[in-house]
Amino acid sequence: MKWWQIRKRDEDLEREINSDLELEVEEQRERGLSPEEARRAALRAFGNPTLIREQSHLIWGWGWLESFLKDVTYGLRSLFRSPALTAVALLSLGLGIGANTAIFSFLDAVLLRSLPVQQPSQLVVLGDGIDNGISDAWANTDLYSYPFYRDLQKNNSVFSSTASIFSSTNDVYGIVSGRDRTEPMKVQLVSGTYFSTLGVRALVGRALTDDDDRTEGKNPVAVISYAWWNRSLARDPKVLDRKLKLGDTTFDIVGVAPQEFFGTAVGQSPDIWVPMSMIASVPPKWGSYTDKRSESLYILGRLKPGVSLTAATSNINLLFQQMWPSYVDSFTTQKDLADLQKTHVPLTPIATGLSALRGQYSQPLKILMVLTGIVLLIACANIANLLLARSTARVREFAVRQALGGRRSRLIRQLLTESLLLATIGGALGIALAALADRFLLHMISSGPDTIPLDVSIHPRLLLFTLAVTVFTALLFGTLPALRATRLDLVNSLKDGRSANSSSAKSPLAKSLIITQVAFSLVLLVGAVLFVHSLINLNHVDTGFNRDNTLVLNLDPSSIGYMDNEARLTALYKQIEQRVAAVHSVTSASFASFTFGQGSWNEPVFIPGGDTTGAVNIKHNVIGSDYFKAMGIPLIAGRNFGSQDTATSQLVAVVSERFAKTYFPNSNPIGRDYSIGDPNSLLKMQIIGIARDVKFRNLDEPAQTLDYVFYPQRPQYLSNLVVRYTGDSTAISAAVQSTIHSIDPNLPITNITSLDEQVSGSIARQRLVAQLSTFFGLLAVFLSCIGIYGLMSYMVSRRTNEIGIRMALGAERSNVHWLIMREMLLLVAIGVAIGVPVTLAGSRLISNMLFGVPATDSISLISSVAVLLAVGLLAGYLPARRASQVDPMLALRYE
Amino acid sequence: MSTMTKNTQQRANVLQGTLDMLILRTLVYGSAHGREIGKHIQRTTNDFLQMQHGSLYPALHRLEEKGWVISKWETAPDRNREFKYYRLTEKGRKQLVVEESQWKQMAEAVARVMWPVAEES
Questions:
Q1: Domain locations along chain B
Q2: Would A451 disulfide with which of A243, A397, A446, A629, CB 3.0-4.6 Å?
Q3: Does residue A708 carry a pLDDT above 90?
Q4: In chain A, what residues touch B52 (CB-CB under 8 Å)?
Q5: Distance, CA of A400 to CA of A45 (rounded, Å)
Q6: What residues in A contact B83, CB-CB < 8 Å?
Q7: CA–CA distance from B93 to each of A740, A830, B25, B62, B103 (Å)?
């Protein structure tokens, strides 16, 4: 029988029993009994009809469900009976579970979820998979050249399949054939073996194959992502007839990747995959197919079945040591060769994918997960306390039920059902909140205008997590009150449900819950104060440049046919700078390869006659002549670039203060030379000026050894145009864009931002952590406040009688007031005493995430304690006042 | 009250597992409603077997579920009221044969243990 047929069955059974019972009655009457006697006799002979029905129900096997449904109905009724309590409980549960679900969905997406590929646990990457870009360093362990990949693929004996992937995506402004405008496309260069190594088959058409990747420039084919197919091509079924123009090469679309496949890097979903053989055709045409020293690829391998990570690591390292000596060139030094002996390539499993986000966010997410977990515990303690108070009020109900033969296990089950009900509604609220919070959080961690493509939607695994949390919380807050409520002294409870000396009035359990809450709240509060303090410190860091009243426009001349290092770029940049600077309200405009927080270009330089010998690594910025003006960076000494510095004149450079102090500590660097590359290099630079130190990659870095090079002397792609203006940014932004398009309508403006946004974007993570921890801290304090208020009010109402006696015996109102406040202060004090060592231990774990504030900052600790005390006083004040206003006569008569 | 309880205890309850067989056998005579079946079994055994209604109705429903009996609400010929009548199906008839032979084997086996025949031992 199915459970939904129970009701019909039951009706039928009732009718059947009634008809048979009726017959019995009739027969008894026919024997001459009076109607009443007949009925009684019939019942005696027949048995208890309700019992018969119940026995039948038991045999149907759905008894547990029926009693469960009854418990649920009863539970719902009793929840509605105390709406305020229910609302507080649901709100705190919803927030607690919601916060946990939201943070977990990020934790899952960034750290835990496996790639949607075949047997992801067999996949490894050479090195750590963290560096990205192009390197010509000797024996880099993260980045590899294409020839190295091919050699490794041929010679290794541990991978069943080997693939490589360009270490960053190329952001191209390409054209879908048949359209007249460019649109942004994230192109990922991969080896032909990429899809087969991952075991990913195309949804439409075919995936890339090794044949696409045999001859350089011969196979302009592309596989597109499902998301891009949907977004840009409206899921055109004839997608295989479409073409894409990237730079000046037209690519055939040969396939669409499956919907769940987003690539191998979490938080970075390419739109288009192109074989590595086309590396020289995809703007900005970085990297090389043949250069053994152009190290820009990650190498992925799928371990052969049965090959351990250790065995694979030793085989790969053996090959690494054999292959690199064959890459020796004129720049290789003896030291390089000696270093190679010591170089070890770790193999990193990438079952969960590569991710730059992971390095950045794994610690904050773990910390936030702990914080939300604590918030949920506090919420649980709160609800446990509320239920405890309510169950004490229901003592009589339970006594009656037990006296009538209700089994204790049955009562406990009913109370737990009520808790589960509460938790389930709270969980549903939590999921709704989490869905909202996820979108909000995604915006917060995405420092740019586009949100990071991260799948944080509500999926089965997440629901499972929430379900587990919900059941866990129900048990956590429901068990103790249920056990407490049903363990009772029947006679006493029936005689008097409200005994002044009942043990629950002292309720050590309730008090210890409050103490726990206070201790946990302190931990969260101190955490929040420390993170906010760090954020404030970061916001007050002197960047060295003026971040206000600027626009930063990103242009992409590579998409319209300009080549890197081409002298014609100089003319384009000069023209744009001059025209933009002439726009009304614009005070200066200049190109630069970097502004702030955009990474760096490191290069070794040789400083003859400097105080350092050998090559040193410095950072370069290639800029226009108005860069210092536009950025608001003061020159300390020497001169700026000017019209006298041309492509053919002496190469000149401005260096940072730190550069000057580090390499010319005792002399004036102006007029001195250094050379880029090696001592024999042609690029001999003369220092003409010193600029004030600036923050370059992030706010918490020390001053950098940095040089500025003039772009007419070193033409290359410069992606930033810095514009300083006065007045309204929107109008100027529009004017600047139209000016640029009046020079070349096809030149893509890929992004418009400001220095201020770049700076605040660089601390998005810290801001997120600070804001969330503040939210959680306040939530914790608020919940504790409700908890203290609830317990105090409850205790006051239980002690009305005692207070009445005290007052009748001459206690002052202030004495009574103090009596209650003292109790509350004691609880908070014990909570703080427990919380302080826990906080100190916990804050040590986050010390590396703090900036300019020690983890054991006493001011943060003291202010948090003060806040907790103040909140405790507030929460205890009202109940205490109510106690002191007890009328002794009323209170005594009350019993 | 207490005497009655005692009284009932002295009589035997229907043996576990034989109730189905007894019901099926009863229905061989024709369709009957729950009370008739109970009464019949009680009367035939001279009130030795006490019919517990709490197990009778579930047993009837179980048999119905297995398809050994079918039920229908019908008006009783002598009373002007509807009763739920149970009727044996073909499947039920076969089942009765099976249960009967099983019971026979069981009874013989028990008998051999309890009252061994001299020649055989």
A1: 10-115
A2: A446
A3: yes
A4: 47
A5: 31
A6: 16, 19-20, 23
A7: 96, 78, 9, 16, 15
| Closest by Cβ to B35, choosing from A12, A15, A23 | A23
Cα(A166)–Cα(A295) distance, rounded to whole angstroms?
10
Percent of chain B with pLDDT over 90: 12
Task: Band the pLDDT of A585: cuts 50, 70, 90.
Answer: very high
Q: Name the CA radius of gyration of chain A, rounded.
A: 37
Across A856-879, average pLDDT: 88
> Which backbone phi and psi does A623 adopt, to 5 degrees?
-135, 170
pLDDT band at A251 (very low <50, low <70, confident <90, very high): very high
A755 or B34: whose pLDDT is higher?
A: A755
Task: Check: CB of residue A541 under 8 Å from CB of residue A699.
Answer: yes
* Closest Cα in chain B, distance from residue A55 (Å): 6
Instruction: Identify the closest residue of chain A to B65 by CA–CA distance.
Output: A1
Q: What are phi and psi of A842, to 5 degrees?
A: -70, -40
Percentages (nearest 5) of helix, strand, coil residues in chain A: 55, 15, 30
Take residue A481 and report the two structure tokens written for it. 């009150």
Instruction: Check CB contact under 8 Å for B61 and A56.
Output: yes
B40 touches chain A (CB under 8 A): no
For the stretch B64-82, pLDDT in tens is 888 899 988 888 777 778 8
Q: How confident is the model at residue A603 (pLDDT cuts 50, 70, 90)?
A: confident
Alpha-carbon gap, residue A297 to A354, rounded angstroms: 13
Q: Is A822 on the interface with B (CB under 8 A)?
A: no
Domain ranges of chain A: 3-61, 63-113+357-497, 120-351, 507-540+764-895, 550-762
Q: What CA–CA distance (Å, rounded) separates A562 from A573?
A: 12
b or e along A759-793 (b: 16 or more beta carbons within 10 Å of the residue's beta carbon)? Answer: bbbbbbbbbbbbbbbbbbbebbbbbbbbbbbbbbb
A234 at B interface, C-beta within 8 A = no
Give A-chain residues touching B84 at CB under 8 angstroms.
12, 15-16, 19
Q: What class does CATH assign to B10-115?
A: mainly alpha
Rounded CA-CA distance A63/A413 in Å is: 14
How far is the CA of A91 from the CAs of A374, A432, A619, A782, B108, in angstroms?
Answer: 16, 12, 53, 12, 70
Q: Is the CB of B33 less than 8 angstroms away from the CB of A19?
A: yes
pLDDT of residue A479: 84
Calculate ∠ Cα A487-A490-A492, nearest 5°: 110
Structure confidence at residue A256 (pLDDT): 95
First to last CA, chain A: 55
Question: Closest to B57 (Cβ–Cβ): which among A13, A22, A26?
Answer: A13
Size of interface A-B (CB pairs under 8 A): 52
CB contact under 8 A, B81 and A46: no
From chain A, the residues in CB contact with B58 under 8 A are 55-56, 59-60
Residue B64's closest chain A neighbor by CA? A1
Could you say which of A20, A44, A55 has the minimum Cβ distance to residue B35? A20
Q: How far is A411 from chain B (nearest CA, A)?
A: 25
Q: Measure CB to CB from residue A20 to each of B33, B54, B58 and give the nearest one.
A: B33
Question: A648-668: per-residue pLDDT in tens?
Answer: 899 999 999 999 998 888 888
Q: Give helix A356-393 / helix A395-403 axis angle, nearest 10°.
A: 70
Answer yes or no: is pLDDT of A706 > 90.
yes
**CA atoms of A115 and A120, how far apart (whole Å):** 6
Task: Flag if A1 and B35 touch (Cβ within 8 Å).
Answer: no
How far does the CA of residue A419 sit from the closest CA of chain B (Å)?
A: 34
d(CA A26, CA A28): 5
Amino acid A240: pLDDT: 93
Dist. CA A642–CA A675, nearest whole Å: 21
Q: Tokens 């085989």 appear where?
A: A315
